[in-house]
């Protein structure tokens, strides 16, 4: 029996996240305070008692979700057989698997958030969820649209998120509805994540990732860009750099984990989005979501 731990990405955040850990676990409080120091502002104040708007800023959201996941994993003292994370969650997974230190992971997440924010300002974009079509149809329609629009998140069978310039995404939504999509729904995001429009962020982050000290993880990490298990630090870095402009292959990560003998999943962090997605890939598998001890 293999137990995998999985970590959510941006969008899972909620005000109050992590407060019980801060209040009840001395080691957790210490890590949260260390995070406030590293970031140069009291992210804990926004996480525990800020407004939804404050928490929604990319520079806050990404470190907040990362901190909740990683500090919870440390408080639970988890021993994973495999890990994976959705987009930003890949950084949480790397820290929990021992490939990156807590401090280095947080610094990279903060830099990633700032770089993505900047890329959104250079070229505004958006994303849309497409429900009820197979992956190939969505990819084909995206290729037929003028402008930049690509498949960005392969979340589960019948649910794919597309990403690109606002006009191209809107045009693709219309065409996908005509092709039989049950829904084509614009998402409330500030940019075209996991698309070529993130190229400026990728270039900015490349140096930071290359300079960070990565170790061999204690277990394989199934990475977003190819859905395969990795333990080689050089390969992990390369995949992490590619991740910003490449799609998140979540459906295939889950399928590969199941094929490699994973029988139990635990989602650590805010929300339970991944639990729902994993159930759509396999109804048999044991899965739980934990946002507290």
From TrEMBL:
<comment type="similarity">
    <text>Belongs to the fabD family.</text>
</comment>
<keyword id="KW-0808">Transferase</keyword>
<dbReference type="GO" id="GO:0004314">
    <property type="term" value="F:[acyl-carrier-protein] S-malonyltransferase activity"/>
</dbReference>
<dbReference type="InterPro" id="IPR001227">
    <property type="entry name" value="Ac_transferase_dom_sf"/>
</dbReference>
<keyword id="KW-0012">Acyltransferase</keyword>
<feature type="domain" description="Malonyl-CoA:ACP transacylase (MAT)">
    <location>
        <begin position="6"/>
        <end position="292"/>
    </location>
</feature>
<dbReference type="InterPro" id="IPR016035">
    <property type="entry name" value="Acyl_Trfase/lysoPLipase"/>
</dbReference>
<dbReference type="InterPro" id="IPR024925">
    <property type="entry name" value="Malonyl_CoA-ACP_transAc"/>
</dbReference>
<feature type="active site">
    <location>
        <position position="87"/>
    </location>
</feature>
<protein>
    <recommendedName>
        <fullName>Malonyl CoA-acyl carrier protein transacylase</fullName>
        <ecNumber>2.3.1.39</ecNumber>
    </recommendedName>
</protein>
<dbReference type="InterPro" id="IPR016036">
    <property type="entry name" value="Malonyl_transacylase_ACP-bd"/>
</dbReference>
<dbReference type="GO" id="GO:0006633">
    <property type="term" value="P:fatty acid biosynthetic process"/>
</dbReference>
<feature type="active site">
    <location>
        <position position="194"/>
    </location>
</feature>
<dbReference type="GO" id="GO:0005829">
    <property type="term" value="C:cytosol"/>
</dbReference>
<dbReference type="InterPro" id="IPR014043">
    <property type="entry name" value="Acyl_transferase_dom"/>
</dbReference>
<dbReference type="InterPro" id="IPR004410">
    <property type="entry name" value="Malonyl_CoA-ACP_transAc_FabD"/>
</dbReference>
<dbReference type="InterPro" id="IPR050858">
    <property type="entry name" value="Mal-CoA-ACP_Trans/PKS_FabD"/>
</dbReference>
<dbReference type="Pfam" id="PF00698">
    <property type="entry name" value="Acyl_transf_1"/>
</dbReference>
């Amino acid at each position: 029996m293999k137990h995998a731990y999985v970590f959510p990405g941006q969008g899972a955040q909620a005000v109050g996240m992590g407060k019980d850990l801060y209040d009840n676990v001395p080691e957790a409080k210490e890590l949260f305070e260390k995070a406030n120091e590293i970031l140069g502002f009291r992210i804990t104040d926004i996480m525990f008692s800020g407004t939804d708007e404050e928490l929604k800023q990319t520079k806050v959201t990404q470190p907040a979700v990362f901190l909740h996941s990683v500090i919870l994993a440390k408080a639970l003292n988890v021993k994973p057989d495999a890990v994976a994370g959705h987009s930003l969650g890949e950084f949480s997974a790397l820290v929990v698997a021992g490939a990156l230190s807590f401090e280095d992971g947080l610094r990279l997440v903060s830099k990633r958030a700032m770089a993505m924010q900047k890329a959104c300002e250079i070229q505004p974009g958006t994303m849309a969820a497409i429900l009820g079509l197979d992956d190939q149809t969505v990819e084909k329609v995206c290729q037929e649209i003028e402008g930049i629009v690509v498949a960005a998140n392969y979340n589960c069978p019948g649910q794919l998120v597309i990403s690109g310039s606002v006009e191209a995404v809107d045009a693709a939504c219309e065409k996908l509805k005509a092709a039989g999509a049950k829904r084509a729904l614009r998402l409330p995001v500030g940019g075209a994540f996991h698309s070529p429009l993130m190229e400026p962020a990728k270039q900015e982050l490349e140096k930071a990732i290359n300079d960070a000290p990565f170790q061999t993880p204690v277990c394989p990490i199934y990475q977003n860009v190819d859905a395969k298990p990795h333990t080689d630090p050089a390969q992990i870095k390369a995949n992490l750099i590619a991740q910003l402009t490449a799609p998140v292959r979540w459906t295939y990560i889950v399928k590969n984990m199941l094929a490699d003998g994973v029988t139990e999943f635990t989602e650590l962090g805010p929300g339970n989005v991944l639990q729902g997605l994993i159930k759509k890939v396999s109804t048999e598998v044991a899965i739980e979501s934990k946002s507290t001890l």
